[in-house]
Predict the structure.
Amino acid sequence: MQKKKSLFKNFTIIVFIVCALGIGVLVIFPAQNNTKASQDEQQARVVVPRIPDFRSSEIHDPVAYFYLEEDITSKVPLADGEIVLTVLSDFFDDGPVEKQIVAFRNLLEVDGPINLTFIDYDTISRSYTRVWNGRTAATQAGTIRLFSQDLLGDKSLCVLLFGMNGNGENTLTIFRRNNVRLGEPFTKIFELSIDGTITVREVPRSFAYQTGQSTGESFTISAFGRDYESANILDQVEIVFAYNPSTGIYQERNRIRIPGSQVEQRLVRELLGNPRLFEGFVAGLWNYVDAQGSVDRNQFIYFDPSNREVVFYSDGIQQIFSWRSFTPTRYGLHIFGQNISIANLRRSIDIELESLDSIRIRVREDIRLRVSVGNPWDGSYRKVGPPNNTPAQQPENILVNLSYEGHIGRINFFSDGSFELNSGASLRQGIYAFFSINGDELLELRYDDTSDSIREIFLVESDEELMVLSHVRLGSRGVTRLHERPITLTLVD
C-alpha cells in the first residue's frame, strides 16, 4: 500500500513537471510568433511619409500632402514604394462589412499619376484583399479630394477624384462601380484636365428617389477653361458634360462662351505668370458682387498671405482658414485651407483673375460626405478701395527689438518676429506683426500657448516714449474700434 502511494506521488510530480515544461514552451515559442504577427500588423499600418511632391515647388506647407494628419490606414499593406495619400472607407453596395477606396502614388514614378485601389472583403477567407487598381489624371498629391456619390441617379456608386496635374490644370476622374458579377469592379466613365475649374452640378431629386421607389436625374459636370479661339486671355468657355446611358460615359453636351474683361494684356500676363506676384495682388479685402453687379458689404473674403490665412465673413459669421498650400493655375491660384477651429473642415479655393480690380472665386468644401455644389461663396469679388492698375504689393511686416511696460506687464518684441508678455503671474509667447491699412498703423499679436492660437489686433498710436494700443476688429468697413480700455505702454531700456 505504501508502495502504491509512493508511485502515485512520483507520477503526480512527473505530470506536474511535464505540464510546467509545456507551459514554458508555449510561452516562449508563441511569443516569437506573436512578434512576427506584430511585425505584420505594423506593416499593414501605412505611415504617410513626410516628403513633398517633386513637381510642386510652389507648395507652401508640405502638411497638405499628408491630408492634415488624418488616420489614413489601409486595411491591406500596399506594395513597396506605394504611399497612401487618402482613404475613403464606407459600406459600399450596402454590404455588412466596411470596404475602402485608397488613393496612392508610386514613389518610383516621380511624375506619375495618382492611383486608386479598391480593397474588398473576402467572406470565404474572412480577410481584406486588393481587387482593382485604376489611374487618374491627377499628379499633385497635395491637391486631391476623394468622394463617392450617386451621380447617375440609379443608386450606383461613383468614385470621384479631383486634383491637379503638373501643368497646373484641374483634373477630375470618375469611376463607376460595376455589378459584382461583371468581373471588373470599376469602370472609368469620365476624365478631364482643363486650365480652369471643374464642378459637379447637382439637381434636386424627388421623394420617390429618396425612398428608393424610382431613379433620379443624373448630375452634369461643368468645366471652365480658356477660350483659345479668342485673343483675350480672360475670355473663357464653359463646357457642360452629361451622362449618356447608351455609351455608359459622360460626353460633351454644349459649350458656352464667356467673354472676359478687356484689360491691358501685358499686366495680365505679368500677374498670371508670377504666382508670388498674384499672391500679393489678392492680398486684402474683397467684397462679394451679386448678379446685379451690386457690392454686398455683408459678405467678403480677406486674404492674408503674410499670416497664411483666408477669412470668410457673411451675415455676422466669420470663419478663418489656415492657408495650408497653394498651387499656381493658368488663371490664378488654387488654395488648400483648413479651418482653424474645426480640423476636418477643409476648403479648396480657386481664384481666377476677372479684371485688374476683381476676381472670380469657386469654393469646394471637403467634409468627406458629398461633392459640394452651388457654394454660397462662389462668384465675383471686388477689391475694397480704389481700383489699382498695377499688382498690389504684399504688406510688409515691420520687425523691431524693443520692450514696453504697462498695466498688462512687460512686453518684449524681438527682431525674429516673436514676442513675450510677462505679467508677473504668467509668461505668454507668440508672434507679432506691425502693419498698415489705409494709413492706420496696426499690431497683431498671436499667442501660441493654446491648442488653437488666439490673435488680437490693436490700433497703434505712438511717439518716442509711449505706445497706446486700442483693441480693434477688421471688417468690410475697415478698422472698427472695440469699446475697451486702451493699453498704455512705456518704452523701457
User: Anything to note?
Assistant: The first strand starts at residue 82 and ends at 90. DSSP finds four helices and 29 strands in the chain. The chain has four domains: 1-44, 62-258, 265-383, 402-492.
